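Lab meeting, action items carried over

1. Structure of the two-component assembly. Owner: GW. Status: complete.
Input record:
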Amino acid sequence: MSSIVSPFDFKEQFRFWPRHNEALYRRLESKHAWLEERHRTPEDLAPDPLENEMVLNIGPQHPATHGVLRCAVKLDGETIEKCVLDIGYLHRGIEKLAEAKTYQEFMPYTDRMDYLSPYSNNVAWCLAVEKLAGIEVPERAQWIRMMMCELARISAHLLWLGVGLMDAGAVSVFLWCFEHREDIYNIFDHVTGARLTVSHSRIGGLASDVTDEHLAMIAAFLDKFENSIAGWEKLLNRNRIWIDRNEGIGVLTAEEVVELGMTGPNLRGSGVAYDIRRFEPYLKYEEVDFNIPIRTEGDSLARYFVRMDEMKESARIIRQCLDRIPRVYGPIRNDDAKKAYPSKNEVYYSMEGMIHDFLYTDTGVCPPKGVWCYHAIEAPKGELGFYLESDGTGNPWRVRINAPSFTNLQGLEYMMEGAMMGDMVILIGTIDPVMGEADK
Amino acid sequence: MPDSTSRPPQHETLKFHFTPVDPPRPGADLSNPHAKKTTYVPEVVEALRERFGDAVEEVTLYANEHTVRVDKARLVEIARFLREEQGFTYFVDCGGIDRFTDEDRYEVFYNLVNIDAGKRIRLKVRVDEDDMTVPSLTGVWRAANWNERECYDMFGIRFEGHPDLRRMYMPEDFEYHPLRKEFPLLGIPGSLPLPPQTPEGELTRDPFPAAHGAKPPKSYEEPPSEFTEE
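Predicted assembly:
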């Protein structure tokens, strides 16, 4: 009883593992068949470590991979010759799970996809279902949804900023960012009743209304945040180390990002003007005044500037919402009990309300049979879309999640090739993947 | 609060140049409260019909969204036409659908976007169970690579001409395709060995033992109790 490592042979038990790795490494080799030709003679094969290629596995449990991302890289000295990503360590099969849930039941699962901005995911899901079933959302709910989505964007970008800077060696910004994220969590806590997995949006509206205290909290947060971000920009925009680490790293041209299908700030950092908020406006984005930051350099520094500007634009949008929400009176949920949950007052004090509540929990909304639709929103990471197909029952027939992190990671493979090993953490940070979303 | 004495910003943010399609194209049905103007593209559908004739099998419109179902054999040709002549350069998404019918059981859809003109269209192809192949679109849009791999992983549809058709999420020799309708939600016991729950324990063969009538493995040692049954 000396070792806690069990004596059985893992290779025998995990029979998939060797084959899985073999396929991965074969992929790593395939593009570089010329390497074998270069090392044809025995002298070439002499084990000089500086001459040989090295295969290095980074992750899945590596702090710089922001989750469980595994990169198998082939190195030539310090240059990455080829990179193959292995994802799926967090695969929970939520597309499969969705088929066994009603539309409303599945909503809390979306919190667990991009757990840095759960509010956006809830809203994306609810909007997709509302489009499929043709459910109208009251105006007040739309304004509140928009405001909270922008708060979620700030929260997600703050995490990217803090963690990205920590990867580059600056620890204090991480603490400053998390101080502000804590404020946002407190706001979410007061508005929705939960800090991380908010689950506040409902099909046809919202779970609860915001009060004047909530709006005052958000206004106070914005004052503090705008002051802080001005300070961070003074620190970072002309910071020699930060610029040296980011400038010219991971350069993608406008053609390349479109070809790789990247979304969000990664796309706009390369000069492609594609933002769902303008491309096909949802909620009330047509009625607020804001800019979409675009930069053309396409390197990590450009993406840094895009995200910083986006946070400031989000603050602008929230200010306009704060201005508008007190003047938009009305319900926060659709009044039709076949399309949205009845209010709790109705449920507790009337028989019909209770019946409707039961029915809605049991079956929920039933979209027409044999129809499908796709609805996308601009989540902090990019285009988050849900493709839904209905068979006329309360459960979706097929749910397809177009996750921005997944599409962005595909571009990471391409970006890594030719980069330096030391820039790897910067590249992963600049892509800003969330594995919970990429792995579905 | 921005400091009024500070200098103008060093890094100028560029203006967002985008021409929205305004007003909507004639004939658009915006009765759905969430309908978008971009998804109604009759001119593209017409161009496809004119060019490919019978290969366009069905055109559907729901919630102001156009879906064009095309012939599988001419998919690559149609995709190339959409990309090169209609400007759909941006590949958004693709995925499979299990219709669970006798004929043409599977479907694969492709969401495409024309960024400059503000258009969005969806292509669909049907796949029969006897011939589970679809021509790969990786030659047209590079972005299709991972999406097709995922579709292969989840449905077992093989994409012909794909440069790297490995599974996306599941391990290489997992024998099933989870998003097919006949795959049980609780998984198939024994199909995937999971790590042991205790340092010296056996591998877990069933992720949901309780659902299959077995005692779930404990990740901790239960303290001895005098009430423990023999």
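2. GW to write a short summary for the group page. Key points so far: The radius of gyration of chain A is 24 Å. The first strand of chain A starts at residue 53 and ends at 58.
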